[in-house]
Structures are given as structure tokens and as C-alpha cells.
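Lab notebook: predicted structure, single chain.

Context: the supervisor wants predicted structures on file for every construct in the current expression panel, including those that have not yet been purified. This is the next one on the list. No modifications to the sequence; it matches the entry in the shared construct table.
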Amino acid sequence: MSIDQLVAECVAQIDASHGAREQVIGVSRGLIRLCANSIRATHRGDFAEAERLLAAAGAVVAQINAATANNPEIRAAGYTQDALKEYAEAHLVLAFLAGREAPGAAALGVDPAPYLNGLAEAASELRRAILDGLRRGETARGETLLQLMDDVYAALVTVDYPDAITGGLRRTTDALRAVLERTRGDMSAAIRQDQLVAAMRDLERRLGLREP
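Prediction complete. Output recorded below exactly as produced.
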């Protein structure tokens, strides 16, 4: 085989990888937008819209999976992993807030590292739902979601592998811990306030200042 032929073979492979890279970069941006909009819809309680957006996002993930099937270096690239992380996060936020069973990484077609990072970020998103609920007096639901946050943190803190393998999961888990502690403090204050209000109402009833 001539030198030109040897070079041509390599160029053909590089050209295919380049084409896959350009495709993935392009669709990844759209995937992230779809996932962000799905999370916003979930927080609004519009689960049907969140599901519609996730269905569109799923088609994009299928494109990414097809484009990276023979290009592991593109699959492992930051832009690909970040987009898949957002996809996992959006699915998990919907599952958590809709009271559904959380899908696994294989079911979503997502690698373990972006899935676990998406799980941590989905748990952090529960803080917003908890605070929104507290403003409506939904303390019991807040306690349930806080326990879910705690369960996710307790599971992720046991994943002890180098960041190069987990995609920086340790940092994401540390961030979740900070969010969890702030949220626990907010929940404790809300519970104490509820207890104080209940005690005052009970005292008023005992003094005859309030109808039983």
C-alpha cells in the first residue's frame, strides 16, 4: 500500500470522527434547552408539557448515541457528557416531583457518570420545590422531598472513584450536601413555626378565645 493510501485511510477515519463531533455539538445545545424547559415545566406542575419536551429530547439522545457508537472519544467529550447529564436530570426531576419511579441509566440510554451527576443535580432541584411548597404551607411534602434529597446524597457519597471516571461527581455531591444542609435548616424553621402556630391556637382555644 502506498503512502498516499495509508494517509487516506487515516484521513477517512478522522473525517468521520469530525463529522460526528460537529453533529453532536450541534444537537447537544438543543438537547440542553429542551431539558431546561422540561425542568421548568415540571416545577410549574405541567407534567404533560415536561413529558412532551422529554420525548423530543429522547429523539436527540438517540441521535447522539448513534453518532458516538463508533466514536468513544466524542462520547466521552465534555459537551456530550454535559448534555446527557441534563437529560438524566430532567427525567429524574420529573420522576421525583410527579411521585414516579426514577428511571435508571440504561433505560435513558445514558452512561453511568452523567447519570449520577444528573441524579445529584436533580436532588438539588428539589430545594426549589420544597421552598415553593413551604410558601403554600406544604410542610409534610417538604419533609418527604427532603428525605429524598438525603437518600440521594447518602447513596452518592459512597461512590468513591477518581473524577476522571465519574465526571467530577465528588464536586457535584459536595454541592448537593451544601444545598441539603440549607434546605434542612429551612425545613426546621418551617416546622418550628408550624408548631408555634399550633400551640398558640391550642392556647386560644383553652382560654376561650377561639372556637373549638
